[in-house]
Task: structure prediction
Amino acid sequence: MLGVDEKLRMYFTMLCIRRFEEKAEELYMAGKIWGTFHLYIGEEAVATGACFALRPEDYITSTHRGHGHCIAKGADVRKMMAELMGKATGYCLGLGGSMHIADLEGGNLGATGIVGSAIPIAAGAALACKLQKNNRVVLCFFGDGAANTGAFHEAVNLAAVFRLPVVFLCENNLYAMSFPVKKAFAIPDIAERAKGYGIPGVTVDGMDVLSVYEATKEAVERARKGEGPTLIEARTYRFRGHSKSDKGVYRTKEEVRMWMERCPIKRFQEHLLGEGVPEETLKDLEKKAEELIEEAVRFAEESPELTIEEARRLVYA
Amino acid sequence: MPEREITYAEAIREALREEMRKDPSVFLIGEDIGVYGGAFGVTQGLLEEFGEERVIDTPISEAAIAGAAIGAALLGMRPVAEIMFFDFMTLCADQIVNQAAKIRFMFGGKAKVAIVVRSPAGSGTGAAGHHSGSLESWFTHVPGLKVVAPATPYDAKGLLKSAIRDDNPVIFVEHKLLYRVKGPVPEEEYVIPLGVGEVKRRGRDLTIVTYSLMVRRSLEAAEILSREGIDVEVVDVRTLRPLDEEVILESVRKTHRALVVYEPPRFGAFGAEISALITEKAFDDLDAPVMRLGGLEMPPPYNPHLERRIAPQVEDIVAACRELVS
Result:
């Protein structure tokens, strides 16, 4: 059972993700962040619940919608913001940007711009954990879209037959860009796929941080005991479009509103209030998150950029 | 004591064995590399010595093999993946081109992807369209990758040892027709640095720049031509990326004529890059335009007489040299 302090840390993490994303969106509109990115707003409970089930020395692999995973794994939001703004103080020195943030020291093996491509890498990291006998676990985030790539099949099967210490966490936000899960899968639950690999599969409410935490914790324990992978499907929803180019023509306003009413932060807030946490405590955390993100923006704005000569030296080890 | 001779396949196996003995982070992963010993027998006996933990047979999942190698490398391992035929590299191209090659750079130089992907290339075995490809040129176009294509047992062993110790992803191109070729390989340990070419035969009249199986054919052609009084120098680049430009340019500056010989289809292949290099950096030294002898523009045909025609043969190289000096 989680204590109140732990729950408050979770809540704060969710707030940080939400504020980070809102701020990033604002900076994008102001032209200070460019290209494209994929906002995690609405899905905060998944990354937070899952990463809280890990030990600090465990690993994650992330996705193109990876800011939330990164923060939940304990990343420094200043270095993240600097990365989004293309600065030399960013996690990737401004060379990776939103879709390639990695925090190797913190156990985040990186986000990826190719849907599904991190799943084999997660399996490989888990293989290394097994060979190194380091008792660590890999948590692999991917979306419903990735679950239909060949890489998913190859990697989940490989991990299953080798009984690797990895947890496959499918963030089912109901759309692969615009393509609905209903049309992309001939089965109702993506977790059902687990049966075909001989591993457990569970579907959880991805808008409930505690459900995600419990399911992941159980899967992580299994993995750590050497009992192999688990496939978790967390049902969630992105409140914003797929990327910045999304015109939002494939979802109804009613659907979006219905899901926004199930906001994972609001829901957890209600839970905490119900547990007797004073409202003031939650307000303080909101303020703290706000300040942290503001400080991250200041840090990023004041940071220098890499030169092309410096970049060139990083192509080869 | 006469120098020991072993085959190209044995030389590769020795390199794997020595590096695995030396470094516990080195392991092998691929299809049928364990009990079966690899489709071409390269890994025979390694399972017995190193066990299933370090000689890892996988399901038929090329993307997972390459991806798993990358993931393990991110945690400090040095995996050597075997892709059964070079044509199958297409099945893991995303992992190699988008992940292995870019991860270090995209992550701000903080990651190391020390993997080797070994794979047999080339036609001449009657294996037709899906098992005879020479696709090495594709990978030479990718910053972040290194590409090695040895021609002799000696080079294969020394270069593979360096490739395994290298902190970058290395594509190690083996040639099926070389696996059984024997050559001198000393008992004592040695390594050959990546990115260093070698003059395999000294000559005055023209330079052949080549790699892999075509080195052998070029050397045979040079012997024939020497009887006609044409003295051919053969430069084996050995590593395609990074390319040893100096060994090529130095030779061309001496002979003033260059023929680039390579097995992939002529159009757009790596040989064109060598030709461009010579033209850009040694133009004033040339007595004739750089000539290219590449493969034919068609998928590998099954019929043996036709298959023979798609890759340069000794007689084709001889004819090209005669033309170049005439």
The CA atoms of residues 85 and 168 of chain B lie 22 Å apart. Chain B has two domains: 5-184, 198-325. Chain B has a mean pLDDT of 97.
